[in-house]
Every structure is written in C-alpha cells, then in structure tokens.
Amino acid sequence: MSFADLLRVTPGTTPDLEAIDPDGTPGFDGDKDAGHEALKPLRVELADFQERLWAESRESLLIVLQALDAGGKDGVIRKVVSAFNPQGTRVTGYGVPTEEELRHDYLWRIHANAPGHGRIGVFNRSHYEDVLVVRVNELVPESVWRQRYDQINDFEAHLAANGTRIVKFYLHISRDEQRRRFRKRLDNPEKNWKWSSGDLETRSKWDDFQSAYTDALARCSTDVAPWFIVPADRKWYRDLAVAGVLAETARDMNPRWPVIDEDLSAIVIPE
Ligand code: ADP
Fold first, then answer.
1. Per-residue pLDDT averaged across 2-29, rounded?
2. Which atom of ligand 1 is nearest to 196's Cα?
3. Which helix (H) or strand (E) holds 92?
4. What is the pTM of this model?
5. What is the separation, in whole angstroms, between the first and last Cα of the chain?
6. Of these four, 97, 174, 234, 270, which has the most CB atoms within 10 Å of its CB?
C-alpha cells in the first residue's frame, strides 16, 4: 500500500492519535540507511515534477506542515522541500499574528500567501493554529473557534476549485521524543538558539493539544485537502513518508510540458 493510503485521515473519521505509534514506519520495512537511499529517487522525482508544474503553470501545490514544538517541520523543509527549485517555491512561516493581521479575519494572512499557478507554497504552521494554539490557550471564545472548522473547509475547497492542490501533514511525535529533542536544544550550544521557554508551556498542555489536533484532523480532512498523519520520531522515516506522499500527489497531478503551437523546426538561429 502507498504511503498516502496508509497515512491519510479518511474524511469523516476521527483518528485515535494515542493508537498511532510515533516510532512506527508504516509502508517501509527497511532501516535508516535504506530509508535514506529510498528518499533519493523521490527527491529527483519531486524536482522533475516541480519543473513541469512551473512550465505548465496551470495548477499550484500547497503543502501545510503542522506539528508540536520540535516535531520536525524545519527538518522536512530542509530534507524534502529542498528538492524543489527555490525559484518556484515559497515557504511561509506563521507566528503570533501582528497587530495588522489581528485587525483582519484569520484567513487574510493565509490567503495572501497561497501559491499562484505553477508555484509550490509551503506553510510552516498555518491557519490551523487558529483552531490549535488559539483554542488551547483560549485566545478567542469557543463560539468563535468552533465555527472555524467549516470555514477552513470552505476556504480550502475554494482554493482547490481554483487550481490549488492541497496536502496537509501532521508530524506525530511522542512525548518522550519531544523531551529528548528539547534536551538536545539545551545541551548542544549549536542548538541553544532553537530553545524557547514558551515550548515548556506548550508541552505542559500536551493533552489539550492532542485533543485539538484530533478535532482538526477529523473535521478538516477532506477529499480536496486531506490530512496525513506521519509518525515522526524517526526523522528518516518522516522525510521518506512526506516525500512519498508528495511524489504520489505529483504523479496524480502530472503536469505536462506545454506544447507550443508554433513550428519550432522552421526557426533558424542566426550564426
Ligand atoms: P516555530 O515554533 O514554528 O519554529 P516560532 O518560534 O516563530 O516558529 O513560533 C511561532 C509561534 O507562533 C508558535 O508558538 C505558534 O503557536 C504561534 N502562532 C502561530 N499562529 C498563531 C495564531 N494564529 N495565534 C496565536 N499564536 C500563533
């Protein structure tokens, strides 16, 4: 079975995050070295896809990355998204909204960064924060965030109907693995810069985040914008699985080299 089939949240179902092993490697039997080898041809395939997407300029691809702190979003960007030509790719990170952003609806800043035809957009965090951190930290009343699942589905359906293919990844790490990664950030001077004391506050609300993620995954995995839950304790598997789902998406989109009407064989290039 393909990575996409194994990891997709079937629309209309509620995933049981506790039952999904963050250390698992569904769809792959090999070890770390084999995983690294298997990633290589996928990266080549993704690069080729991106060139055709760009040349054809008919559709766009939006990749949404969500995870708890230290979940590996940055790693996926470094190891997988880097296969794409930067010229046609834009990564947008979403932090605490600015004053101006707060004066608009929460999708305003998101829509502004949706990829145009031929482009790939990568969201490092996204509008899902507005039903995750915003819900857990009670930044708006429940009556407000409750409405957002439907609004998000409508918004994503709108993008899809206008030529944007959407794939969303939740990188699923265990509590223990998060602890190990935080520890490294504290112990390794080269990783100190990644440490933020706010991360501990978020960790203290682990169960609330699991509930909020479960609802987002259950309510917003749709045919046009599916969620994929990627076991992410093993970095090599995480990268392989994300690349695998993207490669399957790329095959399905299958952008074509544009066919030029003009008779190119008649063109003479002067000496
Ligand atoms: P990252 O942790 O992704 O590497 P930052 O350190 O800039 O990036 O953290 C971004 C922070 O912004 C996170 O704590 C996240 O929860 C917060 N954030 C993102 N979107 C929102 C939002 N809509 N409302 C409140 N906080 C948000």
1. 98
2. 6
3. strand 89-93
4. 0.97
5. 55
6. 234
Spatial separation of the C-alpha atoms in residues 208 and 17, rounded to whole Å: 12
Residue whose CA lies nearest to ligand 1 atom number 13: 95
- Rounded CA-CA distance 167/160 in Å is 11
CA of 94 to the centre of ligand 1 (A): 6
pLDDT at 266: 87
| Domain 3-253: CATH architecture, name and number where available | 3-Layer(aba) Sandwich (3.40)
| Residue of the CA atom closest to atom 6 of ligand 1 | 95
What average pLDDT does this structure show over 112-130? 98
| Beta carbons of 15 and 229 less than 8 angstroms apart | yes
Our mutation pick for probing the ligand 1 site, out of 68, 69, 94, 96, counting the most ligand atoms within 8 A of Cβ, is 96
Whole-angstrom distance, CA of residue 40 vs CA of residue 73:
19
Residue whose CA lies nearest to ligand 1 atom number 27: 96
In the chain, the amino acid numbered 185 is R
Q: How far apart are CA 53 and CA 117, in angstroms?
A: 8
Domain boundaries, the chain: 3-253
Q: pLDDT digit string (tens) for 153-186? A: 999 999 999 999 999 999 999 999 999 999 999 9
Tens of pLDDT, residue by residue over 60-100, are 999 999 999 999 999 999 999 999 999 999 999 999 999 99
